[in-house]
Amino acid sequence: MLKIVFLGTAGSFPTSKRNPSCVFVNHEGELLLFDCGEGAQKRMMQAKCGMLNISSIFITHFHADHILGIPGLIQTLSFNDRKQPLVIYGPKGVESFVKLFVALGQFKPCFDVQSVEVSGRDVIVRDGYRITVFNTVHGVPSVGYALIEDERPGRFNRECAIALGVPPGPLFRKLHHGESVEINGRIVASEEVVGPPRRGRKIVYTGDTRPTEEIVKASLGADVLIHDASMADDLGDWARTTKHSTAGEAARTAADAGVKQLILTHISARYGDSTDVLINNARDIFENTAVAYDLMELVVPYPK
Fold it and tell me: Catalytic site residue 150?
């Protein structure tokens, strides 16, 4: 399962219905956070995310609305006798910030809190997937992240395998995983019964940023693009000044990258409960767009 839960979707100012930025990802049981704004713990409890097992936090930049949930989370994890390390990735300065996060708790956690500095073109390799880092353009050093699964084996042709004399059972598994098998003195190769490899899923999170060609390249073919859309298109000048994106600019990125779905987030408090103008601006350019809201869940299916 690849599930995204939007724990915080507000812009710089939280509202009664939107917490500061935080995106939770469950990748086949491994729990990840992308940014961790104030109030993230409460949202995780509401969403029943299983926050005690979070393995890593990926920070896009060090503005307060993206990081202030971390000290409290560290304390909560320590209170629950966590043993496994927590790894916090982020742009230049992450080591100093992590030391500060730990110090704010006024006690030493019972687990190791590690920091890893990343920048554009870094690749974090995990079991079954990788996270690629790309540079973004904001008022401070900032990055975005793309979670890209490894290729999957091609489709297994059961009927063909049986016709070649392979009995159903363990030999099917060997063939599907690229091994050849011997049947009655004849070698049956995997490629005879298994189609070409199939791509895995891909999700991209930009954090706060202006639209850039680097984001387009990082997002090519993504199943889901989660993009800053702080403002409607009529505030384009303000978006450029504050180094954010408008809904239309996010949609143009999605269209240029050929993504399947665009999710707008980091929504300015000026729009209150009505985000129609944002969705209309975006859908004029990219139809398959939605505006994120707190506790919204999205399960990403495998591509056909």
Answer: no
